[in-house]
Amino acid sequence: MTDHLLQLRQVTKGFGGIKAVNGVSLHVDKGEIVSIIGPNGAGKTTLFNLISGVLPVTSGTIEIEGQDLARVPGHRYVQLGIGRTFQNLALFKHGTVVDNILVGRHWRMKTSVVEAALHFGRSRREEVQHRRRVEEIIDFLEIEHIRDKVVGTLSYGQQKRVELGRALATDPKVLLLDEIVAGMNQEETEDIARFILDIRDDLGIAILLIEHDMHLVMDISDRVHVLNFGETITEGRPAEVQTHPGVIEAYLGHGKSGAGTAKTVTAGAA
Q1: Could you tell me where in the chain the CATH 3.40.50.300 domains are found?
Q2: In the chain, which residue ranges form alpha helices assigned H by DSSP?
């Protein structure tokens, strides 16, 4: 049994002769925000697809609370406590905010088809219970004013917040956020950063984050894991990672070092 909430050991994913992820090991503990960074094509989203069961691993192991995910069907990962947002929005554009977040509660519903059709007894009690949880999430994310709006009519930043709400509705133990602030303005990014910290501190959910916004990464991460060409360059606290020569070279294409260059990486790698 591992002491880590999420543990990856020597995880590899090959596509033909190409290894998109090659021998990556990392872990996430309870109460942590861990970021994965790296240039485009580094293997970050492929790694998320492996953790969330979208793709099977070629070799290596992924465990959550000591349970090997290779022994679990991909559709059951959510039941083990893995929640996720996607780089490209995957919302039901014709549904309301409430309807979209309610989808995240689906796996918890025990009502039979007949009970659901007749809407009585357990079906009605379940709906009340799950809608109550959805309202709590809406309050937490401060989107009460758009709760009944059709998602397709919302701004991009608002839709991102709805997708975050749907992921929270699955009651995750670890939440995978794939470029959650991509395309957002400064104010929206600051709001999401605040919510990420609150998700960890108030809800007790660990965060694994893929992000190109280096300011956000360095401000909120407990640890940073750096990938390039599918392999780990380094891992450590933000201040350690941003001055690592291999990280500077991966982002800037040369081996300069020093505080000035590290600042350039931090500010310019988004």
Answers
A1: 1-81+174-270
A2: 44-51, 77-80, 97-103, 113-118, 122-140, 156-168, 186-201, 214-220, 238-241, 245-252, 259-268
Give the side-chain half-sphere CA count within 13 A for 53: 19
Distances (CA, A) of 74 to 125, 219, 262: 29, 33, 39
The rounded distance, in Å, linking the Cα atoms of 11 and 47 is 9
What pTM value is reported for the model? 0.84
By DSSP bridging, strand 33-37 and strand 59-64 are unpaired
- List, edge to edge, every strand of the sheet that includes 59-64: 18-28, 6-15, 59-64, 67-68
pLDDT digits (tens, 9 = 90+) for 27-54: 999 999 999 999 988 999 999 999 999 9
Domain range 1-81+174-270, CATH class: alpha beta
